[in-house]
């Protein structure tokens, strides 16, 4: 299955196979709740700092996989192996945030 950037999808090689990830509105709402944030602007500001913890990566990638239709827990995501190791996971999460917010790397929300 190929990722469709127009729909906010990205592709990442995880556990040796290409997977599609997408931060749907439901996935974004899941992240708002997980980080106890009030709205999507606060979510964008949280990730716009450019500093992501391993916990952040697990949540973002898990939400992206679930948004694309996979049934996977955050604990399962934490055990997954990414092409490129930790740097690959960072790249996947960054690309996913960029695709979701459509801001060319700037994840601050715009009206």
Automatic annotation (TrEMBL):
InterPro entries attached to this UniProt entry: Phage_TAC_11
UniProt lineage: Bacteria, Pseudomonadati, Pseudomonadota, Alphaproteobacteria, Hyphomicrobiales
Organism, as annotated: Aureimonas ureilytica
Short name of any one Pfam family annotated for the protein: Phage_TAC_11
Protein name per Swiss-Prot or TrEMBL: Transfer Agent
């Amino acid at each position: 299955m190929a990722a469709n950037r127009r729909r906010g999808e990205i592709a990442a090689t995880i556990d040796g196979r290409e997977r599609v990830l997408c931060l749907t509105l439901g996935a974004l709402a899941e992240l708002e709740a997980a980080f106890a944030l009030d709205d999507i602007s606060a979510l964008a500001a949280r990730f716009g700092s450019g500093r992501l913890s391993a916990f952040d990566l697990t949540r973002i990638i898990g939400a992206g996989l679930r948004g694309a239709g996979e049934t996977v827990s955050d604990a399962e995501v934490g055990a997954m192996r990414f092409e490129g190791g930790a740097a690959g996971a960072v790249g996947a999460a960054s690309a996913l945030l960029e695709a979701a917010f459509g801001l060319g790397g700037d994840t601050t929300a715009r009206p």
